[in-house]
């Protein structure tokens, strides 16, 4: 699920900082046409939570595979996570150390390799990523309804010095509960004041006790809150790598299907294995990602519309 943001050097001037959708529209509110599932919401349509309204149905007659739209991909990702909110200062649970392990193990994992078939104007998605660790900001966090607010937080924390090659990815984990929002997380892009380098960022609610965003990890390896943000972290990072947000109305996107669904959307809440093992041997219950190649060859497992193009990386 993606917002496409046009944000450049005007983060604290709300009249100049705005969110502009590409031809798919804002994924916070978009309902794909002729799709069996409302993938765009990002919350589990099968859970007994606030997002029950969407569920399996007729997948339609459009091509299942994602299409290339002549833009860039992310050949790699240089990742720094941000934990934002007053409660992180005294936090003693497993979410910070757990997400450090998640991002460290993601690099060169079979799960990362589920996206490396996608090419763009700037090369091919690779399985190698870099994790530079986390930053904690104990100021009060905000909800995810405004991309300008979240980008402002990213720029404040990284001191306006993003990764210089446009491969920076900054996931923001807040202590703000989801409430009635119809999504668990999203990704977007922007530039910081005084910089022309595009960065990718993502927003995550606090999902502890949130049935609508709970993958149902029964392994006992993680707290429920960690398991929930870990699952949607795979969704957002995989989408950012194959279809990074653009920062102008003329920018060309990467890969998504005829209904506007990105690879994470197409396999949302569809799990191909009880646990997926990362390169550092950590294990996670995590949704699969869509593979055109697997769908064409008939080697993928089905999403919630019955289309066999998902890969778990196990």
Roughly what fraction of the amino acids lie in strands?
15-25%
Euclidean distance between termini CA atoms: 24 Å
Oligomer: single chain
Helix content: 10-25%
Q: Poorly predicted ranges (pLDDT <50, ≥5 residues)?
A: 4-42, 45-61
**What average pLDDT do the residues reach?**
83
Output the strand order for the largest sheet: 7-4-8-10-9
Instruction: Sketch the topology as an H/E string, one letter per element.
Output: EEEEHEEEHEEEHEHEEEHEE
Number of helices: 5
Rg estimate, integer Å: 18 Å
Classify the secondary structure makeup into a structural class.
alpha+beta
SSE inventory with pairings:
Layout: E1 5-6, E2 18-19, E3 67-68, E4 78-84, H1 95-106, E5 119-120, E6 123-124, E7 130-137, H2 147-157, E8 168-177, E9 185-190, E10 199-206, H3 224-242, E11 255-256, H4 263-266, E12 276-277, E13 283-284, E14 289-290, H5 292-297, E15 301-302, E16 308-311
Parallel strand pairs: 4-7, 4-8, 8-10
Antiparallel strand pairs: 1-2, 3-11, 5-6, 9-10, 12-13, 14-16, 15-16
Helix pairs in contact: 1-3
């Amino acid at each position: 699920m993606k917002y496409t943001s046009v944000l450049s050097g005007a983060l604290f001037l709300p009249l100049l900082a705005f969110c502009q959708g590409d031809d798919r529209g804002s994924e916070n509110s978009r309902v794909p046409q002729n799709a069996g599932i409302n993938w765009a919401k990002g919350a589990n349509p099968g859970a007994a939570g606030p997002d029950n309204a969407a569920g399996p149905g007729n997948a339609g007659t459009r091509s299942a595979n994602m299409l290339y739209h002549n833009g860039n991909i992310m050949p790699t990702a240089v990742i720094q996570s941000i934990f934002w909110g007053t409660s992180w200062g005294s936090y003693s649970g497993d979410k910070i150390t757990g997400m450090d392990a998640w991002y460290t193990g993601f690099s060169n994992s079979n799960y990362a390799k589920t996206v490396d078939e996608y090419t763009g104007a700037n090369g091919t998605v690779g399985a190698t990523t870099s994790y530079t660790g986390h930053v904690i900001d104990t100021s009060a966090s905000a909800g995810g309804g405004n991309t300008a607010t979240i980008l402002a937080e990213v720029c404040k924390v990284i001191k306006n010095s993003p990764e210089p090659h446009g491969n920076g990815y900054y996931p923001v984990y807040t202590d703000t509960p989801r409430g009635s929002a119809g999504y668990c997380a999203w990704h977007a892009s922007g530039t910081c004041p005084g910089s022309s380098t595009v960065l990718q960022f993502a927003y995550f609610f606090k999902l502890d006790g949130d049935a609508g965003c709970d993958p149902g990890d029964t392994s006992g390896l993680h707290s429920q809150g960690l398991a929930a943000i870990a699952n949607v972290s795979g969704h957002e990072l995989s989408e950012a790598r194959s279809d990074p947000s653009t920062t102008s109305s003329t920018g060309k996107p990467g890969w998504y299907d005829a209904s506007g669904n990105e690879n994470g959307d197409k396999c949302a809440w569809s799990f191909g294995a009880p646990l997926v093992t990362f390169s550092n041997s950590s294990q996670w219950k995590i949704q699969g990602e869509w593979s055109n190649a697997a769908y064409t060859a008939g080697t993928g497992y089905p999403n919630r519309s019955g289309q066999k193009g998902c890969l778990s990386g196990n």
